[in-house]
Design goal:
Mean pLDDT: 95
CATH topology: Tetrahydropterin Synthase, Chain A
Number of helices: 3
Helix content: 10-25%
CATH class: Alpha Beta
Strand content: 25-35%
Structural class: alpha/beta
CATH architecture: 2-Layer Sandwich
Number of strands: 6
Strand order of the largest sheet: 4-3-1-2-5-6
Order of helices and strands: EEHEHEHEE
Oligomer: single chain
Low-confidence stretches: none
Radius of gyration: 17 Å
């Protein structure tokens, strides 16, 4: 059976700032992110399997990505923990959805982080092929398994 790649697209809103950066992105600002997750595998051949012909049920892929990425980061603020993040902790009405990273929250670092999350949670017969994270309509970072 042939190897097939399938892709599911996700959208979420998230704010970030780049600590120590020398441009406008040092300020807290938001993006309408588009995340494209591509996995690969062989279509199921077992005639008795309800998912016959599928590499992965799109609903199963959606469940994993939503649970571990979209639902965690949608409408959240992400910052490098080197920033004075402790000043935000007590303002719960505005900052209850926040994540502090030990890395700069760039699109490049986020695709690596998201790849690590997904690789650990996909079914064993499914391989993460690539992730593309659009930060704007015309700017994205991409991760490919073959490059690792």
């Amino acid at each position: 059976m042939s190897l097939v790649r399938v892709t599911k697209i996700f959208r979420f809103e998230m704010a970030h700032a780049l600590w120590g950066y020398d441009g406008l992105c040092k300020n807290i600002h938001g993006h309408s992110y588009v995340l494209k997750v591509t996995v690969s595998g062989t279509p199921i051949e077992d005639q008795g399997d309800k998912k016959l012909g599928m590499v992965i049920d799109f609903g199963d892929l959606k469940h994993v990505v939503n649970k571990y990425i979209v639902n965690v980061f949608d409408h959240s603020l992400i910052l490098n923990e080197k920033a004075p993040v402790d000043k935000f902790i007590d303002v719960k009405d505005m900052f209850d959805r926040k994540t502090w990273f030990d890395f700069q929250p760039t699109a490049e670092n986020l695709v690596i982080y998201f790849a690590d999350i997904l690789q650990a949670r996909l079914p064993l017969n499914i391989q993460l092929h690539s992730i593309r994270l659009y930060e704007t309509v015309n700017s994205y970072a991409e991760w490919f398994a073959e490059d690792q």
